[in-house]
Amino acid sequence: MLNFVPADRLTVLNDAPVRGGGEYVLYWMIAHRRTRWHFGIQHAVNRAAALGRPLLVFEALRVGYRWASARIHRFVLDGMADNQARCAAAGVTYFGYVEPAEGAGKGLLQALAGRACEVITDEFPSFFVPRMVAAAARALPVRLTQVDSNGVLPLRASEDREFTVAHSFRRHLQKVALPHLEAFPEAEPLAQAATLGKATVPAEVARRWPAFDPGLDLRALPIDHAVGAVADLPGGAVAAEARMRQFVARKLGRYPEDRNEPERDGSSGLSPYLHFGHISAHEVVDAVWRAERWHPGRLAAKPNGKRHGWWGMGEAAEAFLDELITWREVGYAFSHRRPADHTRYESLPDWARATLAEHAEDPREVVYDLDTLAAGRTHDPLWNAAQGELVQTGRMHNYLRMLWGKKVLQWSARPQDALAALIELNNRYALDGRNPNSYSGIFWVFGRFDRAWGPERPIFGKVRYMTSESTARKLSTATYIRRFAPR
Length: 487
Known about the structure:
Elements: E1 10-12, E2 24-29, H1 39-51, E3 55-61, H2 70-90, E4 93-98, H3 108-113, E5 116-122, H4 129-139, E6 144-147, H5 166-181, H6 203-208, H7 237-250, H8 255-258, H9 271-275, H10 281-292, H11 315-337, H12 350-358, H13 370-375, H14 381-393, H15 398-410, H16 415-429, H17 436-444, H18 468-474, H19 478-484
Helix pairs in contact: 5-11, 7-10, 10-11, 11-17, 14-19, 15-16, 16-17
């Protein structure tokens, strides 16, 4: 049997029984779409072993959700192909399903659960996932347990307080991290599942809901084909792991110097893979630890909330881990604590809403509508290039994403309009959109996880201000603009 999953990562969602006479334990893969470094699969294998039943891995892809596009579908389908292959290699039954039309998959989960001992699924604190899982908990005839594989710190390790700035979350992380750093998931949780035998997908299920074909023609699906797949950015665990290894070996050492330079490509590029769960934050952290030859004994004796020095690593590794853990997971903690409104304007800090309201009537030099913004047709070449990168590649340079958001605030009639435009653009085009971390970036534009700044300025008030001119003075952008700005 594998190591037990920590209790604070497990939540039983209904009062339905565990059915010992079921045919298999069903793992319903919905957010952490991988087979390695995975608390969810680890728990599912443990439960299957305890019940003496095989494991059935079920992964589905819907079409009926907002922003469904060829870009997102291609990325997820690449991951499904990897998962199918890795399950086959481990001797575990994998059943993938892609909806051909909205609603076609209705009843599939219930049909599979009807033969199951129990169902294990993923916890994810944003988008439509919490509502979908809650509905399943009410409908399923067997116990449904969700497993938190979101980050290094469990969501429930931070739910007793709300963090208003990254410093306070970082200090909290440093206080509570050690036991969680010693409780990583198994790297290969499927390794022991083969001894449990192979599950069989019920024949009536396979007839009504045919298993997905990795060669599926996306053009037949009712999704947004104007947002096309990114040819040079494959999805899936195999691509994610290759990108991680390349980053750690070739780029990590220069991360502080290169990450803010658009023309150096110094970032890890892992954000889309982390969003879809094609790679685990734990696996990335482990790779950095190995590169640094790190062990917990090198941690600083006292937490201080500072970016550098606590880990006892080199500056580059500590800077990267601060982005991967502090800045990523503060958004997850906020989304978990504020499930109903973390994507709404009303969730901004009181000081930010107050100062933006005081300046809501300030004159705007120009106001752009959503179509003009989406097309990158503003008067600002650097902003247009950032939007062009997003549209073309599904990504945006991290530093320029901050400027991108600030300019939309400046060019919108109301701050609420700016927020709506940024959410729409980000979630439509970004492969890492619809994620707690990307909502953190968007809401940071308006003051979340930040503080009041002076001097007070028109439109922004006390919210942090940025300009394209100052950005261009700090960074090399000429080649970036030539590459991405629409002509």
